[in-house]
Amino acid sequence: MIKQIQIADFERCVYVIRKSFATVAKDFNLNEENFPNHTSFIKIDRLKYNWDNGYLMFGYYLNDDIIGYVSLSKNDDNIYELHNLAVLPEYRHNNYGKELLDFCRAKVKELGGNKIILDFIEENVRLKNWYAKNGFVHTGTTKFEHKPFISGFMEMKI
Question: For the domain that residue 22 is a member of, what is the CATH number?
Answer without folding.
Answer: 3.40.630.30
